[in-house]
Automatic annotation (TrEMBL):
Gene Ontology molecular function terms on file: acyltransferase activity, transferring groups other than amino-acyl groups
Superkingdom assignment: Bacteria
Record keywords: Transferase
Domain N-acetyltransferase: 163-320
Entry protein name: Acetyltransferase
Length: 328
């Protein structure tokens, strides 16, 4: 069996995949957006490096579209077309890198053997047809909003119990990596390296911080960290709020507000005058979180610079950039 490798950054990953000999496999994280709702942030897929002759309709292919890596369902091989699971427009499939042969979510490993492809194909057609109807989308959103809105808050609060929002320390690394594996698109390996480096330094020298919302059992229900983007090669100055995420059961209880608030306090303590954040323009929950904390929209210049930096790194959505003085 070939050695198991894992990679995360889109550029590094493309290089690794393209250099991988045909027939070898690689675990890949962060390419699952187009397979929602089957896959979610934090899931990993195992990719078998192969050529076009080894792909048929109904397979899930890993493709490169411009600088973006994505996993999509194959619609046809001649002409070469792929689409998202919900069928939001079949398009020319981009450069084929391999076939997805299994999925991993937390401790669960789901093989995707070849005979499943026709079933997946039928399921994809059914989902795409249903999702194409406005009524289905409205019902889905209404059910989702109903569950995570006010009425369920007392029940969820009871199930989750009291949460403590605090800075994370090296002893929290394991619980953080479990949370990251389930909920974050950055890989646990990347987090271990980034935060390990921070935590390894003397408190006076330390730059950046990680915060978590922990229940009485020590389980994490929310997370965010603050760091510079420079170390990943993005030409953006200052410190940024990164990977803000609250588990669904703990949403709309003020957890994100407390997490970012704690990061602001720590930034101030570290002498960082300003904290920045970049948010997808259609992410209402996140936009309201930063606005509620007094963050202001950044200048057009910084917004464009940030969008250009992320476009070059393979991102496709328009970002709103926020800034706030760290002083209370
Ligand atoms: C964005 C997210 C972190 C917010 O977490 P949260 O703990 O529910 O947020 P809070 O309870 O602190 O609420 C903050 C504000 O957002 C609003 N809000 C929260 N969820 C909302 C939703 N689904 N729709 C509209 N507003 C919402 C709250 O009403 C509150 O605004 P208010 O003070 O004006 O009432 C959470 O929804 C999440 O994890 N989403 C998925 C990951 C993500 O998108 N991360 C952000 C990346 S930048």
């Amino acid at each position: 069996m070939p050695p198991r490798k894992t990679a995360s950054s889109s550029e590094v990953l493309q290089g690794v995949l393209e250099a991988l000999p045909l027939g070898q496999k690689l675990w890949v994280r962060g390419v699952t957006r187009d397979l929602a709702p089957l896959l979610r942030q934090g899931d990993a897929v195992r990719v078998l490096r192969c050529g076009p002759g080894d792909i048929s309709a109904g397979d899930i292919a890993l493709v490169r579209q411009g600088t973006r890596l994505t996993a999509q369902v194959v619609v046809s091989t001649q002409p070469w077309m792929t689409t998202t699971l919900l069928g939001t427009g079949a398009r020319p499939g981009g450069a084929l890198l391999g076939r997805v042969v299994s999925l991993r979510r937390g401790r669960w490993l789901v093989p995707l053997p070849r005979p499943l492809s026709p079933a997946l194909w039928v399921a994809q057609r059914g989902l795409a047809t249903a999702w194409g109807q406005r009524r289905t989308r409205l019902i889905y959103r209404a059910v989702r909003d109903f569950f995570f809105s006010g009425w369920s808050k007392p029940l969820r609060r009871h199930l989750v119990g009291p949460l403590e929002v605090r800075l994370l320390r090296p002893v929290d690394l394991e619980v953080l990596l479990t949370f990251a594996g389930e909920r974050l698109s950055v890989s646990p390996t990347f987090l271990r390296r980034q935060l390990g480096d921070r935590w390894g330094r003397d408190a006076q020298e330390r730059r950046g911080a990680a915060v978590g919302a922990l229940d009485t059992q020590g389980r994490l229900h929310g997370f965010a960290w603050m760091d510079s983007y420079r170390e990943e090669g993005l030409p953006l100055d200052g410190v940024w709020v990164r990977s803000l995420v609250v588990a669904p059961q703990a949403r709309r209880m003020g957890v994100a507000t407390q997490l970012v608030g704690r990061l602001l306090t720590e930034a101030h303590r570290q002498g960082e005058p300003r904290v920045q954040a970049d948010v997808d323009e259609d992410n209402d929950a996140s936009l309201r979180t930063f606005e509620g904390l007094g963050f202001q929209r950044a200048s057009a210049e910084l917004t464009n610079q940030t969008n250009e930096a992320w476009d070059a790194a393979g991102s496709t959505k328009r970002l709103i950039v926020f800034q706030r003085d760290s002083a209370p």
